[in-house]
Amino acid sequence: MEWTQDRAVDRGGEPERADHGPSVPGAPRDEPPEDDPLALRLETLILGAERRYTPFQAARTAGVSMELASRFWRAMGFADINQAKALTEADVLALRRLAGLVEAGLLSEAMAVQVARSTGQTTARLAEWQIDSFLEGLTEPPEPGMTRTEVTYPLMELLLPELEEFLVYVWRRQLAAATGRVVQVSDDEEMVDRRLAIGFADLVGFTRLTRRMEEEEVGELVEAFETTSADLVAARGGRLVKTLGDEVLFAADDAGVAAEIALRLIETLSGDETMPELRVGIAFGTVATRMGDVFGTTVNLASRLTSIAPRDAVLVDSAFAEELIRTGEAPASETAAAEETDRAAKEGDPAPAYRFALQPMWQRPVRGLGVVEPWLLTRRTPKADEERG
């Protein structure tokens, strides 16, 4: 407590006022109020430098056109501001680096803008989460008479280098994993349009449930669902593409991995009395990947299957079922499985061990996708195999 009080922010004094002119893009969306010295001190601490350049000066110093600088800044998620000294040396360096990649021929201008946009969108969400959830808890006033703002600066001063190092570490790990997946693809076209298993997991009756819950309870439910889903998807070798509150979207290179994730999600959440029932839909096929997201007919089909799936059940498309059968993860039918088991017993060979079972459902029309044949995916247990034998 003595340390916190000693390092509390001095709230006296007035910051230097900036001159204003026409609106020009080039600064963060939420510019700190110029009459708030603490906000300015926090900004300087986080950015590592004081405001020095107007948007025009920053572009000129970086050696790029104002038009290109504007495209980069808007792509990163920063809004138009007045012609004020709001940018730092780091802003100039970022512009110079992006422009340098284009000049060297390593990236096209369009690709450089995509890099800026994907980075900005990802880190914006991360920063919002850290401020809303993480720092909010850490900056509770530790004793009567102290304000939260007096604690924020010294805590940020300690946390900043650690969070920065951790962010770089995780990014490098993710980059290594993504690169490894790409180099294993033999066909160059599959690097962009790949065959993946795409799954949606959706909480049943979530909208009706939220009407009876307090906002804080809804937030806790969503966080628990997202955390559980993210852990299970990662642990089984899949990739969590995104979360949509009551729904998660995941992908896997292998159909067996996706099937295991789907069934684990239902088994885990069904054991939690606080969680609504879950339904999952999975499709397998060509998927376009852009900026970390997935697009295409396969994604749309997985979403439609989720909407018609029974409660606490998994529906898959015929392509996914065929892939499980091809890889030996599921039998083509229970009759075929029984015949294989009998044949293996007669020849003294081990019986085939299937992990999953597939049950064809009635064909039905799906809006925008025509008629589809869904399959119900379940887990085959040793006991069930004995009964089938």
Describe it.
The chain is of the alpha+beta class and 389 residues long. 51% of the residues lie in helices and 16% in strands. It has 14 helices and twelve strands. It is elongated, with a radius of gyration of 27 Å. The N terminus and C terminus are likely disordered.
Oligomeric nature of the chains? single chain
- List SSEs in N-to-C order: HEHHHEHHHEHHEEHEEHEHHEEEEH
Low-confidence stretches: 1-30, 383-389
Number of strands: 12
Question: Which percent band covers the strand fraction?
Answer: 15-25%
Please describe the biggest sheet, giving its number of strands, its sense, and whether it closes into a barrel.
Answer: 8 strands, mixed
Core attributes:
alpha+beta, elongated, disordered C terminus, 8-stranded mixed beta sheet, single chain, 12 strands, 389 residues
Write the layout of secondary structure elements.
Blueprint lengths: L1 H5 L17 E2 L11 H11 L7 H8 L3 H10 L4 E2 L7 H15 L5 H30 L9 H36 L9 E11 L2 H5 L4 H21 L3 E5 L3 E6 L2 H16 L7 E13 L2 E3 L1 H12 L4 E4 L1 H9 L7 H14 L8 E5 L3 E3 L3 E3 L2 E5 L2 H7 L1
Parallel strand pairs: 6-8
Antiparallel strand pairs: 1-2, 3-5, 3-6, 4-5, 6-7, 8-12, 9-12, 10-11
Brief digest:
This protein is of the alpha+beta class. It contains 14 helices and twelve strands. The termini are far apart.
